[in-house]
## 1
Amino acid sequence: MNPANLYALGAIALWASLAALGVSLAHVPPFLLTGLALLVGSLIALPLSRFDLRQWRLPASTLALGVYGLFGYHLLFFIALRFAPPVQANLVNYLWPLGIVVMAPLFLPGVSLTAKHLLAALLGFAGAALAILGRSTDGAAAVWAWGYLPAAGSAFIWASYSLLTQRVQSFPTAAIGSFALVSGVLSLLCHALLEPAVTLSGRDWGLILLLGLGPLGGAFFLWDAALKRGDARQIGVLSFITPLLSTVILLWLSREPPSLSVAMAACMIVTAAVLATWKPRPRSAD
């Protein structure tokens, strides 16, 4: 398999643990949780850069793009979860893989949207929707809530951030530490202004450490490495595996048997990923 797709799958596997860790830390205010986890995640850049802080230096415009992606995405997503049904808000948020596939020709020169990628994206999104709504008892009866708007905004931010990182001046993957550091500080400022103070237990700190090393840290570095080396359209379709894995992990932790909808979603998402990444072998000359 293409090394870029392996990096992407690594990020996807880490992001799949976000929901389970979030459930375990649901009592921690979201901006405090995000800020602490991002600060932990930023430390990954130290060994990655061999403790050379010069690799953290970025043009102001590139740093602004990173903060736009990491901080802006989480800000709108947490607002969405507060003002819309969480399951439906999460579904709207998972428009971002589709956004990467569809918007790639708009952001990246020389990239075109083929019928194969469009079909794979739609199939993957349908599978993601089935994986999420299949666990909801009232998914079919969803009603409008204004929180869906920030959920859609978070999807746009992450898709556009992922694509725009390929348009700015090249920077080392270790510089993602700067994005996480500044975004973490902004999140903690939001916590100080908007959320009540809380006392964290030793277990809380351990889970926050895992969160920072995984879905809110290590995943960002893997994601950047994938985008620097691979096809954004293929990576976007592969990302639809995230909600499926997340749902399976939640089912396992709650000891619920997998439903038919999850099995169908798995088939749809795997088919979409294979379709997006499949390249016919050139015919050998007779």
## 2
Amino acid sequence: MTAVLATETDDLDVARGVLATEAAGLRALAASLDGSFNRAVELLAAVSGRIVVSGMGKSGHVARKIAATLASTGTPALFVHPAEASHGDLGMIVPGDAVLALSNSGETVELADLVAHARRFGLPLIGITARPDSALAEAADVALLLPATAEACPMGLAPTTSTAMQMALGDALAVALLTRHGFTAAEFRQFHPGGRLGARLRRVRDLMHSGDAVPLAAPDMPMDRALLLMTEKRFGCLGVVDDRQRLVGIITDGDLRRAIGPDLFARRAGEVMTVSPRIIGPDALAAEALHEMNARSRPITTLFVVDPAGRPVGILHVHDLLRAGIA
């Protein structure tokens, strides 16, 4: 048992050492960024076609992820394997495209034909490499240089810190481009319709109940009728609207408990309601609705959905968010 515990402790030490080494590499990378990064973003932002990302080995795996991140954040991109490029896939890279090539050494032989193709057709070429005197750095329009840092591998051989820096630099390019393009959450949802992320990016109008389903009453409605209406609509609340159909209050189960007494049925909805209820707009994200429901010390289960004039157009229940996979 003692030996196992010692091994587990050693494993934790190794893991923390790896993360510390890679974190140091990322800090060095952030400090090293200069005008070359700005020039790279300028070139990539001006591309009318796609950003073709390529790399070999571990750099190739990182390149695939960078291409996917770019494409999902509004910058058309694809990965081209450099070896396959030399056997016909160069035809996928056409005028209007740009090339983002990754090679830690900058001397990856398999990239040679792709680099030559970019130069032949005058395509913008961005290189990510650790060597400023490498063939890739010298051929590129802009070379984004990785700082000299230790690999986390104890032998200094397995790409670890270097690939972490490559991936982080790809993320930095993607986020800079989406910021420059003004990429919105609505556009993000178009590329992420599935799963929990897609659900959180749905709009309130996609989930709300509308029309006759919305429980609404005038301020002068007697409370006996108001109770029947609340029971019929099954949301546990009732919206109170003025003569211009603007939402002026809400009656909840809590309001009923506070108002209960021998004269309850003699009172009017406007006397029992809570004024200035929490509301949300139909174009808000479903995730924003969930935040609004939980934003205060007393979470609520329903939100009235109102138009810019304050008129109710729908109602949203937390169960609607649960069914959509948001809550």
## 3
Amino acid sequence: MDLGLKGRKAIVCAASKGLGRACAEALAAEGVDLLITARGADQLESTADDIRHSTGATVATLAGDVTTREGRAAILAAMPDPDILVNNAGGPPPGDFRDWDEAAWEKALGANMIAPIMLIRAVVDGMAARRFGRIVNITSGAVKAPIPALGLSNGARTGLTGFIAGLSRQVARNGVTINNLLPGHFATDRLKTTFAAEAARTGRPVAEVMAEAEAANPTGRIGRPDEFGRACAFLCSVHAGFIVGQNILMDGGRFPGTM
């Protein structure tokens, strides 16, 4: 299927690895010109080279922190008029809410709620004026089923979800769609870190923790990042103009709800 994206321009945040990289790769394969961002310059440049080599796409890079005003200003200066914005940032650490002070909450909200809202604020009116825009926010399956140890993420990402529910309906008639992709377990560095922490906490081998997670999933496996990336690319496509304000859970069916 031709997604109708050739020649479009996209900002993909936190795209040097993991799910952000997978989204960038899938968009590049559709002929999208990319600006990819991440904090680590070396990994970012390596990723950009890989994508250029595998797809032939135009890929610009910008090393910086999207959670800061300065980082966002630099991104918007480099690509002020994107057709596509993929918001993404690393999640806050796990823990007990009794140990989180106000600064911890401010940091979590800044990264996983305020930063994406500020980028959306900067680009959405231009998208509406051009009568085409696609915004995809990578959030978390925890929005659907809160994870007790991830209270900071539960709160910040759910706040973003509520904001998007309202805004997405306001801009849809101008050809702009805003949706959220909610990942479950995907084979990324962050998941490896999570499994390692669980293994250390329980005194079990990491392989056993991973096998347990695979067995608990209806698919019997962990998700592949390329699956996630292709779903993101479809949401950005010309065929997804009637998908508005949705929270699309990609967890292999692990969440047991009817809706």
## 4
Amino acid sequence: MILAIESSCDETSVSIIEDGKHIRSNIVLSQIESHKRFGGVVPEVASRHHVEGITATIDEALNSANTTMEEIDAVAVTQGPGLIGALLVGINAAKALAFAYDKPLIPVHHIAGHIYANHLEKPLQFPLIALIVSGGHTELVYMKDHLSFEVIGETRDDAVGEAYDKVARTIGLSYPGGPQVDNLAAIGEDSYDFPRVWLDKNSYDFSFSGLKSAVINKLHNLRQKGEVINEANVATSFQNSVVEVLVGKTVAACKNYNAAQLIVAGGVASNKGLRTQLAITCESNGINLSIPTPQLCTDNAAMIGAAGHYLFKAGVIADMSLNGYNHMDIEQCSIE
């Protein structure tokens, strides 16, 4: 059994994972209400909330799993990427537990965790393509086996979640904006001519800065002219552009790499429009698709425990000098 801690952004989460796939407990303490009035995550506020909640969350996770630290085999924790102050709260809590109870300490890459969230519901099948979509990341990762990460495509500017949040703010939606854009998109029509950015013909890279600017400029121009803005149609037109490019490039990668499975990971993987279109396109192309339930798409410690299980089996153990990093290359975490 692994006790896992996730504190990379604005969720304090602790989970107990057995055999890398059985969730004994998964406690998530959200900070959304605290950050809503600022329109986004304030790092200093996030860190303070982690400090206030980490001990109680650890206790709740152990009690919910009906276990004790003596029965835990190792402690896993998110090392990065993320907000450095927030990461350090989780890392120091994990180091304290590992030291006090003489348990191995396992450092986990946050995006590796998102990938292994799929494993909690459906075993990973290799080789696979992972589409990572979140507030800070948009990447296509090729995996030929467990803990083998090769980035074959990434965003050249804004991550898709970042674009969603900025468009939501311009429309006038409150934080967190991504889910609200998704809900609006379900009732609107694709009436605005927003661009699809495909970049080079053979590239798996993404770019959402131009699309974001196109939406913002369109809204500003309409407001200056005093014209009525159909917010639902803006959301639909924006989301259709995003989804078409994400799905198109991802399916092309699956075909070119002969992937046995496509998995989707990250907070934006809970987007209903993206999930629906991926399901339709993958079925028509004979692609084996896996997307976690929405609760496992957002940041949580269960995914860290699932990845930590395979790192533990591979002998990846940290010492008490373990530090956090706001930027980390997932390819450097590959185990050959």
